Structure formats: C-alpha cells, structure tokens
Records
---
Amino acid sequence: MDALLIVAPALIPSPGISFVQVGPFQIRFYALAILAGIVLAVLITGRRLRAVGHPAGVVVDVAMWAVPFGILGARIYHVLTHPGDYFFPGADLWRVLYIWEGGIAIFGAILGGLVGIVIGTRRAGIPVLLFLDALAPGMLVAQAVGRLGNYFNQELFGPPTTLPWGLQIDPSAPAIPPGTPAGTLFHPLFLYELLWNLAGAAVIVLLEYHRRRHGRITLGAGRSLGVYLLWYGAGRAVLESIRLDPTELLAGGLKANVLTALVAAVLGVGLLAHASWRARRRAPVRGRGDARVDPQ
C-alpha cells in the first residue's frame, strides 16, 4: 500500500506559492479568495433582496457589520480549537492576531457574522430572517470560493489516497501524520467541500423555484436558511471527521468542528420543521370558508 502511495501521480499538484510580493506588502491568495467570496455573497444577496422589494443596497449596509464581526468570530473560533498552535512555552502570543497567515474558521465566521447581521438588519429595518434566507445560497457560493484559499495554504485535506485526483501536500505541513511516506497523496477535502457547497446553493435555488411555481412565498420563513444549515452542517460533519487537522478534541475523541457541524444540521432541521408547522397552522381550513393564504 505504501508503495502505491509513493508512486501515485498527483492530479492536483501542491501550489508553489501562497502570496505575491508587491513592494513591502504580501498579497495572499487566501485573503483574495475570502474577499472574492464576500463580494459574490453581497451581489447575490442584493439581487435576491431586490426581487422581493427591498433595495439591493441594504446588503452593503448589513455587510459593514457582518464582515468585521465574522472575521473576528472566525479567528477566535480557530484559535480556541487549535490552542496548541498558539499557546505553548516560548510562543509568540502576538501570532494570535496574525490572521494573514491563515487560520480562520467558517463556523466562527457564521456565529460572529450572525451577530453583525442582527445589528445591521435592525439598523436597516429589514427582518433578520428574511435577510438570512436571501443570504443562504450566496453564503454557500462564498464558502466555495473561499476554499480555494485553503488550497493555496495547503490546510484542508484528508487521509492518504491512491485515487487519480490525489492532492500533493508539502511534507512539512503540520497536519501530516509523522511517518507518512514521502510522495503520499491526500484526499482534496477543499475540493470536495467546494463542490458540495455549490451543489447546496443550487438545491436552495431549485427548492425556492418550486415554491414560487406553487404561489408560495420563498423568503422570510427560514426555509432557505434551514436548508443551508442542514446541507452545510451534514457535509461539513463528514469532511471534518476525516480531515487531517490538529483541531482540539472534546470528550470521547469527538472533534470540536464535527460537533459544531452536527449542531448546525440539527438547527437546520428545526428551522424547516418550524416553517412547515407554521404553514400548516395558517393553511385554509377546508369547509369553513377560510380564505387565508399560506404565507410560507
């Protein structure tokens, strides 16, 4: 098996660089991928809000709160789930702030960004659940693009593989288990998640299209947000369970990221169940002449 791992050709080569130098500044591809994802999420969400009668510019007002809170939450979550990378004898504690080196966690970004969204939507006078429904597919697209940054940082890969799409990783990467044979290729989890996220965005859009065809409101009930949480949480739980990454383990050997992903998926199921319950309550009662329309 080891021999196969050594000679297997890499369809996905390891990137030779992770940044470009422009004068005294380093422009990191990781940061560019995140910025590109944010721009796409803003554009997609603005278009979806405009389609339901809200000015597209409101998404920029909300993003001014969501983005900094999201980045802060992402960094805090990463540091807390990777304490060994930052807290050890002789460690330079200032590295906790070196976000340009990589190391931000999407779950932290979601939690922090949610705080910013609540603040931003209240100031903008738009229902928070409506905004989150509008954001759902754009968020998945943004996360997909952001995974390209993980590729350049060589930080999101799974166990060794002999499959044709094996990913080459620099042998010095800290997540590679000691004793791994030279030339070993790994599952490209960044690519798996990228494709999973794009598929999830398509699923949300298709489900909304189906509801529109039946004359039902698609945004504001939490359905799209529920699908997002369920889809992303379920996929991420699987990928995190096989990811080679020194994430802090909880009791029973469960990774913190796996637990968070499962919680997200459960919350998604809860949102979908609640939206369906509200729809049944508001549905017309046959035989009573009730002309109420299901707003869900």
---
Amino acid sequence: MLSSTNILDRVKTDPTSKGIDEAVINYAVSDATEAVKTYRLNKDIVEYATYLYARHLLFIRVLKHRERFKVVKAENGEYTKFDDANGDDAWDEFQRLLKEQKYGQKTVHFY
C-alpha cells in the first residue's frame, strides 16, 4: 500500500534534499503521488516510483538551479564553467523502472 508518510520521510532524509524547504518537499511528494497514479505500475514498486519522481521534481524545481556553475581558479585568473555533475539520477532510475515494467513499449501480438 502506498504510504505518503514513508515517501515523505525517505525524500526528506535523502542527502540531496538537504537544505530544501519542507513545504517544497511536501509539494513535490504530493505532485509525484498524483503523477505516478497515471502509470499502470506493479503495486510493489509504486512507492519507490513515487519517491524517484518526487526526487526528480525537486531536481528540476530546486537542485538544478543550485551550484550549477563552478568557479575554477587558474594561475592567471578564474573562470566559471557549467558543472553537470549534479545530474538527475532519479529521473534516469524512474525511466529504467518504467522500461523494466514494459511501460510505453509497443508490442505486436499474433493470434
């Protein structure tokens, strides 16, 4: 059974959520819960999928705007470069989970 309390606790304790306002996390979990309901997933993975989707929402709403640029000091000055190390791993994992569930794959059936 889907437990929003479990999902909320898991997202809040995730290291990537550190410093994110609790209300923003609550909205992300709520929105993720509604979004994941639209998928026909195995009931055993719905909670995990919701957690991943909530983390993805936090990434696009908050994390991708933080520390996105990195100042690099060189011998003759400093420059700023884009730091893509903070990728959206949750979205990648969510997509893998959908693929594992054969979601979105077209199949041909012969009778």
